TrEMBL record:
Transmembrane segments: 7-27, 67-85
Annotated keywords: Membrane, Transmembrane, Transmembrane helix
Pfam families membership: MbhE
The protein, known as: MrpA C-terminal/MbhE domain-containing protein
Keyword Transmembrane helix: yes
Record domain MrpA C-terminal/MbhE: where: 31-87
Source species: Acetomicrobium thermoterrenum DSM 13490
Length: 89
């Protein structure tokens, strides 16, 4: 019975270490990270995508396929719930 407890303890210590490392590396709340990609989107969104809203240009143009995938997953989830709760006649 000692073997499984030791293995569990080792995995628990490793997992706790990973969580503590992640919490240590988190940036402070309210201080946004600024990157070159942010500056690129802000400076080029209107000229490249003809959109006045930067968020709209990112969601629908730069990340269009990702947004399409998210919509497909949402549609599948809604249809699954509707099929699950339909009434049998």
């Amino acid at each position: 019975m000692k073997g499984p407890r030791v293995i569990f303890l080792i995995f628990f210590v490793i997992f706790a270490g990973i969580l503590c490392q992640g919490l240590y590396n988190i940036h402070p709340f309210g201080e946004p990270r600024v990157s070159a990609m942010d500056d690129y989107f802000i400076n080029n969104a209107q000229s490249e995508r003809a959109a006045n809203n930067v968020v709209t240009s990112i969601v629908f143009d730069y990340r269009g396929f990702d947004t399409l995938g998210e919509a497909a997953v949402l549609f599948t989830a809604v249809m699954s719930v509707a099929a699950l709760f339909r009434k049998e006649e």
